[in-house]
Amino acid sequence: MVVSEETQLAEVLKQNVIKGDVKATESCVNKLLEMGLSARKIFDIISTGVLHMGEQLSNKEAFLPELVVTIDAFKKGLALIETKLKSEPKAGKPLRIVIGTVEGDIHNIGKNLVKTMLEVSGHDVYDLGVDIPADVFAAKAQEFDADIVGMSALVSPGLMSLRKTVERVRQVRGDRTNFIIGGYATSPALAEELNIMYAKDAIDAVNKIHDFVNRGGA
Ligand code: B12
After folding, report:
1. If we measure between CA atoms, which residue out of 132, 111, 120 comes closest to residue 186?
2. Does 3.40.50.280 match the CATH number of domain 96-214?
3. Fewest CB atoms within 10 Å of the CB: 28, 85, 153, 175?
C-alpha cells in the first residue's frame, strides 16, 4: 500500500501534538496548509492528538504535565488555522449551546476541548466556566435561549448538582432545551435515566449533537 505524503505528515503532526513539540507542530500545520489540506481536517488531526493523550491520562499511561504540553501544542497549532476554520463552510444547523462544569467540580480541560470542537463545528457556545450552580445554568439557558445545555462532571459529588441542573433548566425552559453530559463521573446509564445525551469525548459530542439536529431537535 502506498501511503501519501499527506497521510504521513498527518501522522507526524498527531505525534508532535502528543509529544507537545510546539515548533514541529507549527511546521507540520504550515506544510499541510501549503499542501491544500482544509483547516477542518487539520483541526481533526490535532484534536485526535489531545484525545489520545486524554485517554492515556485516564488509563494512567501518562501524567498531567504531559497533557499540559500536548494542549499547548494543540493551541499553537489551532492559532495557525483559526481564521481559516471560521471562514470554511460548516455542516448542519448551528445551535445555541451553554456549557459549564457542574457545581463542586473544577475540572475544565475536557470541557474546554468540547467547547472548542463545538465552536469550530459552527455552533454558538457560551462557556460559564467551572463550579457552576444549577440556578446559574438555568438563568443563562433562558437568557441565551439555549437549544442545549452541556455539563461536564468528573467528580462523583458533582452528580447531585448535575441532576439539580437538569431539573432547574427543565422548570425554566420546558422541552425547549436539551442536555448533553460528559466527564469521568457521568455515564450512558445516567444519561438514559435522565433522558438526555451522553458523549464519551469531544468528537462524540459533535456527532451526538449533529444526530440530534438530524432527528429534528431544536
Ligand atoms: C487532570 C485532573 C485533575 C486536575 C484538573 C485540571 C483542570 N484544569 O481540569 C487537578 C489536579 C486540578 C485535579 C483536581 C482534582 N481531582 Co482530578 N483528575 C484529573 C484527571 C487525571 C484527568 C482529567 C482530564 O483532564 N482528562 C483529559 C480530558 C481531555 O479528558 P476528559 O476530562 O475525560 O474529557 C473528555 C470527555 O470526558 C468528554 N467530556 C468532558 N466534559 C464534557 C462535557 C460535555 C458537555 C461533553 C458533551 C463531553 C465532555 O469530552 C472530553 C474531551 O474529549 C482525572 C482522571 C480521569 N480519568 O478523568 C482525575 C479525576 C477526575 N480527579 C479526581 C479527583 C478526586 C480530584 C480532586 C477531588 C482531588 C483532590 N483530592 O483534591 C480534585 C478536584 C477538586 C474539585 N472539587 O473538582 C477523580 C474523581 C473521582 C470521583 N469519582 O470523584 C479522578 C477520576 C481521578 C481518580 N481516578 O481518582 N484533577
Report:
1. 111
2. yes
3. 175
